[in-house]
Design a protein that fits this description.
The structure is a homotetramer of 348-residue chains. Chain A is of the alpha/beta class and 348 residues long. Chain A has two domains: 5-128, NAD(P)-binding Rossmann-like Domain (Rossmann fold); 153-316, Dihydrodipicolinate Reductase, domain 2. The first copy, chain A, is 30% helix and 20% strand. The first copy, chain A, contains twelve helices and 13 strands. Chain A has helices at 15-25, 45-48, 63-66, 83-92, 109-116, 123-128, 138-143, 152-166, 197-200, 214-225, 260-267, 318-332, and strands at 5-10, 30-36, 73-76, 96-99, 130-131, 146-148, 176-182, 205-206, 233-239, 246-253, 274-276, 294-300, 307-314. In chain A, the strands form two sheets. Chain A has a seven-stranded mixed β-sheet with strand order 8-9-7-10-13-12-11. In chain A, helix 1 (15-25) crosses helix 12, helix 8 packs parallel to helix 10 (214-225) and helix 8 packs across helix 11 (260-267). The two termini of chain A are 37 Å apart. The model of chain A has no long low-confidence stretch (mean pLDDT 96). Chains in contact: A-B, A-C, A-D, B-C, B-D, C-D. At the A-B interface, strand 7, strand 8, strand 9, strand 10 and strand 13 of A face strand 7, strand 8, strand 9, strand 10 and strand 13 of B.
Chain lengths: 348, 348, 348, 348
């Protein structure tokens, strides 16, 4: 038995934090040695999250107390703007980082600063960071010191597009539409009127039509994969009254060629976390609840020859956040990609 | 005070039935004189629907007992295939009919028989029936003896398209995409595993991708309004974990011209039940909960010049079913269109 | 047609505020002439609550702008501690008041100050205020200048007890247990982590076991009705994952005598908003959703001779708040008690 | 590595079936070798439950095809009345059984036949069956050939009472009240109107007041633990709009003595699945979601000396069904009790 990976989690009071802790509790090679929170320093983790009673003896510490430099890996589960301030020092001390916030996701700094409304604190680290869509960048992730874990929408939208774009099958000049639906946990564990059960429950609405921060992130991926696609991308996110789960419905124009579900199936043959279902299937978000999975189907729109409909589902807190972060950790530390991530979805 | 309209409701044990009863209880010119149900004959309405205790003294009757021919108007809130059998005799006796099922919605009988899997019992009545999208066909509805009340999806999709198509603003040759989301009450009050709280709750999925019965109904409306649009229509319905509410997200290619929200606002200036909101708005389903309203916004897709996003919400049981049926009744009987339909949405 | 009652609403940005506005829109004798909010002054009511688009032209005003002294009646839908500061001046100007907060509910000032953690600003007004449990205090309400509208739990618990206590049927010396369940809207429309969909959804828990502010309010009512009952009262509130609705399950020891459901039925014979169901019935919260109703059943606990189970349901925002406030307004202004309050519950 | 336990699951199409499959997939010593369903024979398990795609290669078989006699252990996840017909033959062939239905739970056959409305097919097996409340009957379970897995309510109610009754702390002659709340999955995965999202969602109600089948089961446990308690037991179950979770609120009269939370804590010191929380705590159902846990707190009712309030939560599908069944399997096969059952609750 080798030494476990010593892990610190910065900002563990939110949903991605508690989800990391849930997943890492089942990981045979990981040991969480520090959790930090400025506001909750001194509180026992198990008092803060009753689901963790009996699982962890840890107490929230301030970043100073936590001595994160002794960790092998630090996850940032912080609001945007925190990791970029604290990462450089940890990197200098040889610690590896997976950042679940948006601080290192966009290589175009000007775009980042415009969408996130702040100056970036460490542009050089951005240049060094690897975009952590695991199935797209495995080799680079393995070698990276810092990984920018993707947003939930970008993960859910990009995974089905990746093989099709690599194969050059998208018609250029036609719009690529992503109509996306997210559970409310995507808004995080912060007190906001719009996320109240009485506001978001029994209700459905679009939001962020004028522009959502995940739009440039998806465009960056699209541009890297097939030139000319990005400009035609339309993205409309919606809020759906459930806790976990994300569903992307994509409308694509494909050039002729072999059946696209075969392209996807070939591409993901060795990817344990992408499940390409048969055409005609309608993946449900609950079929991935709590698990690090993306299930996808693709089929022609009824009565059309070149318009295709892609359905893609993830658990936004798992494959869309904490699960993919652990998957990236596995890749970074040379472990089998599915180590500690084999739990079966919770249904019903 | 004139005589009230004497009303019969056939098949009042489902959600559209109880919703008709809720709305008609507040209608100053209507009196429900008979409710029929073969399975519940003899049961007091108030025992069957506890929300109606103290509101109605009626008892479910068999169709024979009910003597529906004495009614001025009969609503059919029955499964598909019932109204077509019972309507001809009532019509012959001078009774007017609003059918909330699909029996008289499609003028193309072959298409109807294909989609609904049965032979039509009275093709001549189909020819005579008026499609009851109130805002489209007011004059014909006023004169009709039988009105085919539209489906919920067709109402939610067609209302925003109606002014744009009439104005000839849709680009032909480009797909018109309708990504629609429905609450579970759209599936009706029948025991089906897929509608259980434990199956449909905390879950999101597409369905009917291969073809949904409302597809030909919407195409019929589109074709009537602007030639050449119908073939490019893509329709994907989704099930969202809420009781009431329907949200359509439409992706359109418009030709240049005056702002489309102005076209909508002009068109619906005298329509009390269509609310055209400002561009940038995101109508919520709960903002119409329990009310006979359709709220609509239209705006350009971020970063596009000719792709527009339309958001349209209704309560599927009200403007998508029982409310529009009462609206049609008002039109048929020369009453102000909003009589008895002015209740404020229930929020939260 | 007489002059409408001119109405002001102070603090109309919360759930009881919007519910008052919904109900008053349907009231034939009421005209809302002012809505105040310090934080939202200048915002159109219809922009703030999209469900009110097309219903009200009002704009939120500061209390100063609103000139509330011109109103016939002012509803306070404010957090605790506001009405007690603003009521005295309005009362001095002859305005009548219904306060939906807790400021005037407890006659025992020391208890009030202990439970609400502040000094009371106008003890003399407390002495003058009438406790607005409509069915208990009709005559006093009719004559009152200021009515303290009851809390939701006290309404749901007290209505079934009122006839039994008046009849002296509760055994003294035995505990009276109220196990209560509330929808999340009872917590109000304020940004609080505990009310998030992701915290309160798909979850059930007790709260306030050590003592809830509605406990002394219920005890005050019990003590007024039958001496010796209050000390034995046990109250445990729970939070249930729904928006509206409150359910009280009471466990009582009754002395022998005529069937208690008959006592309730006799007592409420002329009360339009209390529905005594047959023993064996299990009232559902949705059977009163959106309506000013309390439905009650009472039956022996299976296998017991003197233990009885009472089930009582209300919509916490209607009979538990805004609806009862309008009912009290009707009583105060000599209108039939059910004026404007006859809407049928929204089911499903 | 020893041989895995070969497992068959009879009736694996319901919620307890899929939950067993989820849990057993993570069990290091178990191998599911057969799943049976008469109605779904021939269907791949992964097609039936999309959450199991990639987890199991099994296909539903008829009981005959399945050759269950080759299994070491058979779980019955069938409707009541099935196991009693099929168990005797399997027992005769040396197979061990955990029955998740109610067939072997009541030792009083007359009571069983009355509550379940059928004649019992194998009274002798009832006599031999061990009631599988793991923490109560560990030794007998270890030696049993057939275990009657408890109902969800009996588990949630009995676990907190077990130590108090064993210690003789309940006052006789006073009622013991159990006000219980269940998520809808307790009603199983069968098409029933009452379990529809549109009926059970956003709603709260009591049910089974006249008598619920779990009442005699709880009484049997109470009677075994402390004479004289059972007659005073009052049980009212409620349906709460969530998928998983069960909450019992108990009202007890205790004799004086050491703090009852200490009694519970001592009793459960070596029980990995019972978590006794501090007095003042309010356990939430979501804190055990998906995990084989019962969390309990006990405290005095506010203002009372001898009335105590117990709060007890479980996931009805795990500790209330499939999880306890696996726990019993572990005990029967001499494995550490928590083998394969250490997953962390899913929160949010």
């Amino acid at each position: 038995m080798t030494q476990p990976i010593k892990i610190g989690i910065v900002g563990a009071t939110g949903y991605t934090g508690v989800e990391l802790l849930r997943l890492l509790a089942a990981h045979p090679n990981a040991e969480v040695t520090a959790v930090t929170s400025r506001s909750e320093a001194g509180t026992a983790l198990a008092d803060y999250f009753p689901s963790l009673r009996g699982v962890y003896d840890l107490v929230f510490q301030t970043p100073d107390e936590a001595a994160l430099e002794r960790c092998d890996l630090v996850f940032f589960a912080t609001p945007n703007g925190v990791a970029m301030k604290e990462a450089p020092q940890l990197l200098a001390q040889g610690v590896r980082i997976v950042d679940l916030s948006a601080d290192f996701r966009l290589q175009d700094l000007a775009a980042w600063e415009q969408w996130y409304g702040m100056s970036h604190a460490c542009p050089d680290v951005v240049a060094q960071a690897v975009y952590g869509l695991s199935e797209m960048n495995r080799d680079a992730i393995a070698a990276a010191q810092i990984v920018a874990n993707p947003g939930c929408y970008p993960t859910c939208v990009s995974l089905p597009l990746l093989p099709l774009l690599r194969a050059g099958r998208l018609k250029t000049g036609m719009p690529l539409i992503a109509d996306c639906k997210s559970g409310v946990s995507g808004a995080g564990r912060k007190a906001a009127v719009g996320s109240l059960l009485c506001e978001a429950g029994d209700n459905f609405k679009a939001y962020g039509i004028g522009g959502h921060r995940h739009l440039p992130e998806i465009r960056q991926t699209l541009a890297a994969l097939q030139e000319g696609v990005a400009p035609g991308f339309v993205f409309v996110p919606h809020l759906t009254p459930m806790i976990r789960g994300m569903h992307a419905t994509l409308y694509l124009h494909l050039t002729d060629g072999c059946p696209p579900d075969e392209i996807l199936r070939d591409f993901y043959r060795d990817s344990p976390f992408v499940d390409v279902m048969n055409p005609g299937s309608t993946p449900e978000t609950r079929s991935v609840r709590g698990a690090n999975l993306c299930r996808i189907s693709i089929q022609k729109a009824a009565g059309h020859d070149d318009v295709w409909v892609v359905l893609s589902v993830i658990d936004n807190l798992v494959k869309g956040a904490a699960g993919q972060a652990v998957q990236n950790m596995n890749i970074m530390f040379g472990l089998p990609e599915n180590t500690g991530l084999q739990n079966v979805p919770l249904l019903p």
